[in-house]
Amino acid sequence: MTDCERAFLKSNRGCFKCQKINAGHLSDTCTTWATAACKVVSMTDIDEGVDDEGEQLHCLRNDEYDNGTDEERCEPIFLPVKLTNDDRPVLRALVDTGASASFITDREVEKLRLTRRKLQVPTSVSVAIQSHRVSHPVTEFVCVPLRTLNGRWSTQHVVLKIAPLMSLKLVLGRPFLKRHDMLVDCRRRQVLVPDPTLPDERIDLLTDRSASAVQAGVRACLARLEEQQAEGSYLRAMEAEFRREFSDRFPVDIPPVSQYESKVCHRILLKPGMKRPRQPTYGTPMRWRAAWRRLPDEHLAAGRLCASSSEYSSPAFIILKKGMDTDALIMPRWVNDYRILNAATVPDCTPLPCKDHSVS
């Protein structure tokens, strides 16, 4: 936006985000995306020489690979995955090393009933089809867990931009492959990721587990099951002894806890009339990002953090400690900013039943 355009909007009580005069609102409360922020080319075919600054999507159809000889032909690699933790249909995800982002078709978003979220900066996706390119607007995304069909690998946080993909359903682009350190071997048709149990080893996501690995996994599961059963028997005996000792504190008319069992660990509710808060983010210099990343990784490994499906979050930042620039073992201080979230949500709201409800 030029200075003249900004001055014109300011003099006519306009909004700098949607670029409308006499809008009746400010940029902070604007809910309409500006059409100029998303450079969308016509939906018809355009010339290949036209430059597009949006996202790039290279692979689309199988017939695109049928133009050469058998030696030159490169078949696309599809990875069978599931996007949710429950029993949902399997999707064939195209592993595209040339795509600048990961995408999901809008049809699958509607079918899986995924929560749509607005992009802060709308963009466009340029689809390459033979000698032509077609550009589509991209203004929304979803954040979902992903796991492979063979159960060898999973992740709890994948950002997928919503775009029309024609015959495809899901595309895993270059940022996804780089983030999870995936190697794509087109000659051997392998998608290799680091083994979470063995250092300096990689596993192929396109192959099932070997017989020896399956047997080792079964033995480990049986040993863990026997340990859990022994621990459960010990805890039940301790509970019976505890109830006998304090029998006057355990009346028989208390409802059983099994009636209140739920998979929900925390329930966050907005206050009446409040909209979902839009949280700011705090930047971190590049030299401290490695130390910043180690903090949540250590908490995840220790079990203090777990995956969440909540739509609400709070920004976080770090405070440097003395000596961090010389000693890599000194970790920064992790600070969460809960002010905006606490102001918009109901405090002390959990799925656990209140004692008044239990005895009523």
Automatic annotation (TrEMBL):
Pfam families: gag-asp_proteas. InterPro entries: Aspartic_peptidase_AS, DNA/RNA_pol_sf, Peptidase_aspartic_dom_sf, RTL1-rel. CDD domains: retropepsin_like. It comes from the Eukaryota. One of its GO terms (molecular function) is aspartic-type endopeptidase activity. Keywords: Aspartyl protease, Hydrolase, Protease. One of its GO terms (biological process) is proteolysis. This is BQ5605_C006g03964 protein. The gene is BQ5605_C006g03964.
